[in-house]
Amino acid sequence: MSKKKFKITKDEGIRFSKISGDYNKIHIEEIFGYNSIFGSIICHGALVILKFLKKINLKKKKLLNINVKFYKPLFYNSYIFFVLNLKNKNETKYVLKQDNEIKADISLRFKIGNYGNYTVHRDLFKILSSLSKYVGMTYPGKNSLINSIDINYISKKNFGKKIKIKSQLTDKRFFLIKNKLVFKNYNVFFESMKRPFVIDKKIKLKKSFEKKIKVIKDNVLILGASQGIGKDVFNIMKKNKKIIKIITYYKNVIKSFAGRNTIVKKIDIRKDFSKIKRIIDKYSPLRLYYFPTTKISFRHRVNKKIVKEYKNFYINYPLRILKENKSKKISFFYPSTKNIDYDKGSIYSKIKQKAEIKINTFCLKNKIPIYIHRYPAINSRQSLTLLNQNLPNLLEYLEKNKKAVNKIFPNPQKNY
What we know:
The longest helix has 21 residues, at 304-324. The chain has two domains: 3-194, Thiol Ester Dehydrase, Chain A; 207-408, NAD(P)-binding Rossmann-like Domain (Rossmann fold). The strands form two sheets. A nine-stranded antiparallel beta sheet has the order 1-3-4-5-2-6-9-8-7. It has a six-stranded parallel beta sheet with strand order 12-11-10-13-14-15, sandwiched between helices. It is built from 13 helices and 15 strands. The chain has helices spanning 10-20, 25-28, 30-34, 45-55, 122-138, 207-214, 228-237, 273-283, 304-324, 339-342, 347-365, 394-400, 402-408; strands at residues 3-6, 61-70, 80-87, 91-98, 101-112, 144-153, 164-171, 176-183, 186-194, 219-223, 245-249, 262-266, 286-290, 330-337, 370-375. The protein starts with a strand and ends in an 8-residue tail after the last helix. It is an alpha/beta fold and 416 residues long.
């Protein structure tokens, strides 16, 4: 078994966008990628195939078929390893891995002959570029994914010198599309789909709930209020016009939904502890909601870098904030996960469970009111999946889970 590797840089992605015409933001705009279900910009699938073909030995081989299946996105500036796991006279199969995860399978069928030093034929480049542009810019467009590509060379056919593509929506639940492209001697079948994306849902409070929010007297500091549960908490707290709401963001600038008595701050949770301390000094007594997060994986095995990042975001950073402000009049609200209840083996669940114990112990010892709640999958980029797209926002969840209301919006506290 042999193993080789290559990288794709963002600059290469930008160049491919210009050449192919596929300017889909998921490949080139950092903020768009950050807010996607992937948490980052990703490589064009077509570019991955083209670079892979340049890396393998195709000397004296004429490609008759290229079959690619994508399982997960591939990211810039991280090695992509290709492992040869099947080889015979006329066929080879490879597995593409990145960060110890299988990302794609590629199988090649070819004809042996005196074809010279074959690299990537310009016809293949045109096919993959056109296919990428069609999926990324036309159909389904903005929120698109390529699942598979099957390129067939048929020597006895000639479909003409113009690229022609036909599409059929085959599954409305997942917006699954079967496509066919023809060009010269090539007959190409590819599968695409619309990827899940967060839809902002309007929040309308019932009068009883609104009344509960309006009697809150402490100011509110929401760390990580630009999206997900943090944004929902702020939209609920906006009903209280009397208290000051300090909301923070890191990458997603908060402008349009701030409102009255609201202070917006940019906070990098990894280093801006002195900024947080100054806010608490100035505006306490306050309720401190902690929602900063990194990209979440529910895998049972992750690399050391991810484990360290989880420990920092979910244990070390909140504990440092508490330790530096333990003498102040604060109450602390910490989001945990229901994933602990049904998947105790995932690294994320293990670290969140450890965080619950450590944070709760510290707060009890230092008489800081503490509220920890295990949330289910809520409408956010962290929770959306292909199989789980229609998720409730926080208010919809609270309307069906009355006990959770007092964990997240308890009655006014005076036992600091």
